[in-house]
């Protein structure tokens, strides 16, 4: 699979810290007060649907323990890993993503984040000591839930909601449908079985000529294809290997793929489709992808914060005005999930829920493209 070359790619830069056209960065501990922080978070989510959170206050222990446990799993022999698969969509998957023919150069573990589901899945992931694996995952999920709530409360405050905790309440419900995904992208050199040094040399030559290193002839490979995350908010952390790209406005009314420089100490925050619907489009769900062309493995962990299946998703009244009428019809997360699982990864599925687009024959029909 080769990267579509129509959209240019540029490097995210430090200029981004001031929203200068790259990757916005939010210092979660910056002096200046909570209302300044909430304005910054709203601005990043409204303009980009994405930001890098630094000085976030999440202790490093749970992440280090999760990375060790998942790296040990991915290092197992293929038939041992298959015990936790095939993905249903939960469980261990290799290359295949979803049910509709999407594929990427990765293997992954997709877990429901509830302690009961983690305990059940742990039995096939860590056969030596399932409860050790469960504890490690539960600790990490707890830390992620807390960070997600903090960001969602800042958004609620910054948007001036009557109840600023409206968003975080959805993900703290005991029936929350949140997920944890661990993606392992093997080094590109071993995928091709081309000699490591030759391939790295080849890539650096093309990078010099083209500036972005994504010429298909250099072996740029789709790790995880273009998509938006369907849930409320996603928190992504990865090792020091690049690969994540986000589709951001370039200021000229066009969009460009921006490479997100790796930062293992940061969390990358994505607005999901549900948050776009809840805010009547004020916050935008960001399209992103992973190009897995590096010569070292990329390990990423993403917490997808979701509401319970029965939760009704409708634009909050504060986000609807005469100038900004309601864009999406109300739906439940269960309904949205059913639709999304019938569609390809790259589908702009929220469009199907636009007011006026009530041709229900479009929704949940098992559309393939
Ligand atoms: C092709 C698909 C995989 C996906 C479900 C879908 O039908 C469309 C959305 C995909 C996605 C993207 C973000 C997350 O990685 C994910 C777990 C999710 O909730 O939506 C995946 C789904 C998946 O891999 O099961
Ligand atoms: O693995 C990554 O870095 C991102 C993957 C992703 O976007 C996803 O799993 O939804
Ligand atoms: Fe994603």
Automatic annotation (TrEMBL):
Question: Can you supply a Gene Ontology BP term from the record?
Answer: gibberellin metabolic process
Q: Name one Pfam family in it.
A: DIOX_N
Reactions the enzyme catalyzes: gibberellin A1 + 2-oxoglutarate + O2 = gibberellin A8 + succinate + CO2
Looking at the keywords, is Manganese present?
no
EC id: 1.14.11.13
Q: Which InterPro entries match?
A: DIOX_N, IPNS-like_FE2OG_OXY, IPNS-like_sf, Iron_ascorbate_oxido_reductase, Oxoglu/Fe-dep_dioxygenase_dom
GO molecular-function annotation terms? Answer: gibberellin 2-beta-dioxygenase activity; metal ion binding
- Alphabetized SUPFAM superfamilies for the sequence: Clavaminate synthase-like
Which UniProt keywords are present, listed alphabetically?
A: Dioxygenase, Iron, Metal-binding, Oxidoreductase
Q: Mark out the compositionally biased spans (Polar residues).
A: 1-10
Q: Where is the Fe2OG dioxygenase domain?
A: 175-307
The cofactor named in the record is: L-ascorbate
Q: Where is this region: Disordered?
A: 1-25
Similarity comment text for this entry: Belongs to the iron/ascorbate-dependent oxidoreductase family. GA2OX subfamily.
This one is known as gibberellin 2beta-dioxygenase
Species: Panicum virgatum
